Amino acid sequence: MTGYDPIELKRIRWRSRRGLLELDLVLEKFFAGPFERLTPAEIDAYRSLLDLPDTDFLDIVNGKADLEDPEQMAIVAILRSL
């Protein structure tokens, strides 16, 4: 994860705390492993997912909805695998 300020990474982790337990559990697993291997472009795609409302984000992670952006969907694929 070169190229990302450690303070910004902490902000991303903080923004990843959501209001839905099921989503929080997935994101905790994400930060415990796959997040550490993301490229800066993938982190940017993940950050854009954080702008979604919790219920929409959960529906996407659960496979009930998809996004048109292939970069975001690459992150969603990781989240769905957890």
Automatic annotation (TrEMBL):
Signal peptide positions on this chain: none
Protein's UniProt keywords contain Chaperone: yes
Localization, UniProt: Cytoplasm
InterPro entries given in the database record: SDH (IPR005631), SDH_sf (IPR036714), SdhE_FAD_assembly_factor (IPR050531)
One GO term describing the cellular component: cytoplasm
Record keywords: Chaperone, Cytoplasm
Main location: cytoplasm
Top-level taxon of origin: Bacteria
GO biological process: succinate metabolic process
Annotated SUPFAM superfamilies: YgfY-like (SSF109910)
Keyword NADP: no
PANTHER family reported for this sequence: FAD ASSEMBLY FACTOR SDHE
Family affiliation: Belongs to the SdhE FAD assembly factor family.
Protein name: FAD assembly factor SdhE
